[in-house]
Queue: 3 jobs
Job 1
Amino acid sequence: MATTKQPETPVTEANGELDAGSVLVRAFSELRDELLSTLLFVLGNREDAQDAAQDAFVKCWGARDQVPGVQNLRAWIFRVSFNTAKDMQRSAWKRRMKSLRG
């Protein structure tokens, strides 16, 4: 019989609300499979998709003070992740062009 992993109890601030870091970690955990599938479609390679997801998490973590004001956290995470993937594509293209030039 398969057991499902129960989510950890989120950390709360003194006023009883969830702190932004806990909300962000929970959201990334819940969206992980869908996010990786989307990034895999965009980038075409599982390792790059995992790197993009990790980079996106780091970017979101750096902006976690904005989380309370975000109306659609899922859309925000996907937008940051998609932009990260596009940045990776652009930088890979520039590296290829530079190596072709000499």
Job 2
Amino acid sequence: MSEGGGRGRPAVQVEPANLRGASEEVAFQIQRYIQREGLEPGAFLGREGDLAEQFGISRPTLREGLRLLSSGNLVRASKGPGGGIFVAHTAEDGISRSLSDAIAVMVETEAVSLEELLDARLLLEVPLAGRAAQRVDRETVERLRAAVRAEAAGPSSAADGVIGPDAEIHQIVAAAADNRMVAALTAWIFDVVQPKLAEVLDEAIVSSAVVEQHEALLAAMEKGDAARAERAMKEHLLYLRDLLRLVDEGERDDG
């Protein structure tokens, strides 16, 4: 592994595996190195042969360790000239992508329902809105205001005029809470749930109602009123959940 993301001398001294298996120990040491050095996505870690020699392990063991990191979206491998092992994502981005991928599979296989996911959003985003209101700055308020204006001026179709801006509004609020782990643990909302809601609720959603709910959220954020922000977020998410129930009931009746 090379210093400063360069190629050449190994930079990590790996301790012998103790409680972990060899491949798990390799994965842990590589991840610790990435964190300690503050390596960004795209940074070069080393070539497979060099890394196996550095760790004092066989290539199959190294590959298993790298597979563990790859499954967590933390590293990637490329072959050919200039190839090797590279940082794929930061730890929090890796968590975010892994969680989104897992939830997407659960939605596709109907192992979890949209209503369950909306219930989870209530548990996560209501207190998140209150924290964001306490920490919001002028720049964030301006971004939020612009997103709400864009939503109000958009087409009546939920997919084109509401769901897209809705995701942006919720992302702004999540970012305003200023917690990387919260951001990582809520990204599935925008990666998985919002596109599915656009598909399911497009013909049922009342755009003006959503805009009004977001305007209430904006007003709370402008005043830094945590309780009001939580109330506005809760009313918005309950509206979506209730609407989803109506759509589901209509589909069952049609069936």
Job 3
Amino acid sequence: MIAGVSWAWWLGFHAVVAAVLVADSLLPGRKQESRHAPAFVWLGPAGLALAAAGFACWVAVAMGRQTALEFVAGYTIEASMSVDNLFVFLVLFQGFQISRQRSTQPCCGESGAHSC
């Protein structure tokens, strides 16, 4: 058992991750972006923030205000560290002169994902 979960669960988890990586590498490239794409990009983070706020409300009711505040503090710290990581990637991409062409970016992303 690892982290309280059986070996079969971990093997299944890694099999699903491997299947998703294989499916992602076999799918054809993206088609042309629509003019609404920038608006839809914000739906994901907004949905996650609303889900986190809802979870914090549930934690406040179920476990108390202090525990909910601890969750919100942790969530805020993790979000700020995520933005910091995006800045680091931006600096690295500019430093290595990786262009905005679609043919270059999937290659870099796939190599990072497969090396994990």
